[in-house]
Amino acid sequence: xxxxTLETINAFLxxxxxxxxxxxxxLVLWLAAAGLAFTVWMxxxxxxxxxHALSVAFGKHDRGAxxxxxxxxxxxxxxxxxxxxxxxxxxxxxVIAIGIGGPGATFWMVLCGFFGMTLKFTECSLGQxxxxxxxxxxxxxxxxxxxxxxxxxxxxPRLGRALGAAFAGVCIFSSFGAxxxxxxxxxTAVLREVFPGLEGQRWVLGAAFAVIVAAVTLGGLxxxxxxxxxxxxxxxxxxxxxxxxxxxTHASEVPAALASIWRGALSxxxxxxxxxxxxxxxxxxxxxxxxxxxxxxxxxHAAATTDEPIRGGIVxxxxxxxxxxxxxTMTATMILxxxxxxxxxxxxxxxxxxxxxxxxxxxxxxxxxxWSRLALVVAITSFAxxxxxxxxxxxxxxxxHFVAGSPxxxxxxxVYQALFVAVxxxxxxxxxxxxxxxxxxxxxxxxxxxxxxxYLLAPIVRRRLDEYLARQRNPHGxxxxxxxx
Length: 485
Hints:
Blueprint: H1 6-17, E1 20-21, E2 24-25, H2 26-41, H3 45-48, H4 50-57, H5 74-85, H6 92-101, H7 105-129, E3 132-133, E4 139-140, H8 143-153, H9 157-194, H10 202-217, H11 220-249, H12 254-266, H13 272-290, H14 296-301, H15 309-316, H16 318-338, H17 346-353, H18 357-368, H19 371-403, H20 409-427, H21 432-444, H22 447-473
Antiparallel strand pairs: 1-2, 3-4
C-alpha cells in the first residue's frame, strides 16, 4: 500500500473545501454567512459585551479554588487559546495573504475577525455548557462534546454523534497540520535564515523542537497553560515593540499603507475574479489567524473555572479582536510600509514565492532595524512552539473522545503523542509551501461540522445569554440560576 504524499492529501482536501459557489469557495461562503448571521442573532454581543469581557479577562469575576468547576482561570484559558492562534497565523499568514491577494486582503481579514468574535463567543459558551469531568479528573469540553450532547437534547442524537465524531477526527488530523507542521516549517525557515549553518542540519532543529514539545506536553493542560501564560504575553509584547518601532520610523508612509488596504479591498481590479481572489485570501488567512468557527478554542475555554458558561464565551470573544483586528492590522501595515516588492534582497522575493511569510518579514524588518531580526526570531520561534503545545492538547482531547471507554485508551494516547512529536521533528525537514496548503485545507474543514451544529444550538446560547446579562444588571434579582439549558 502506497503512503499518500502531502500533495495527494492537499489535492483531495482542496476538492472538498474549495467547491465554488457563485465563484467563491464553499467554505469561505459558509464562514462568512455564519459570522454575519450569528452577530445579528446575538445582537452584536461582540460590541455590547466588549468591556465586560475585559473585566473577566483581568480576573474581576474569578472565583476561589473549589468555588466552581474547572482546571484553569479565565485568563489562563484565554492565553492558552491565544497561544493556538496568536502567532504565525498573524505573522506568516498576513504576509502570505498580502502576497496572494494584495493589500486589500487585510480589510477582509479584519472584517472576518470582527464577525468572528461572535462565532468564538457562541462556540466557547457551548464548550462551557456541555463540558464533562473526564475519568482522570480533568475537565474536557469542545465540539466533540457539545455537538452530540446538545443536539441530542434538541432531538437530533444521530446527527449530533455524527458531527461530534467528524469534528474530533478532523481536529486530530488538523493537529498534525495547522497546529504542528505549518508552525515548525515556518520557525525552522526563520532559524535557518539567521543561522545559515543549520541549512544542512535541519534534523538538529527538529530534534530540539521535538524534545521541548514532549517535555511540556507530558504535564497536560495545566503545564501548557502555565507555559502559554508566560510565553505568549511576553512574546506578544516583544513583537509589538518591533512593529511599533518600525511603523514609527516609517510614520509618513503609514497613511498611504492604510489607504492601499481600503482601495485594494473594494477595487482590486476590473475583473470579478480579482475581487474574489482578495476576499478569499483575506478570509482564509483570517480563519487561520483566529480559528473562529472551527471550534478548537472551545476545547481550551471549556477548562476555565467558572459557574457561568456564558462568561467563558464572553472572554473568548476577545481572541479574534486581539489576534486579527489588532495584531494582523499592525503586521499588515508594517509589511506594506516595508514593501517586499521594492526590496533589493533577492532572498525576500524567494521567501515570498516559497510562502515562507515569517522569513520574508524577518528579512524586511532587518533591513530597517538590524536588532529586530533577533527579536523576531525569538518571538516567532516562541509563537510557533506555544501553538504546537496548545494543538497537542486539542488533538489529545479528541483522541480521548474516541477511546474514552476502551481498555486500550492509554496505549492509543501514547501512540498519538509519539506521532505528534514525530511530526514536530518532520516539520523541520518539510518545505513551507506544501505544509501551508496542507494545514489550510485540514484546518478549515473543521468549520463544516462545527458551524452546522452552532446554527442548531444558537437559540440555546441566545437564551442563556439573555439570562446572564439580566443577572449582571440585577445580581440580587430572581433570575434563574446558571445550569444546563
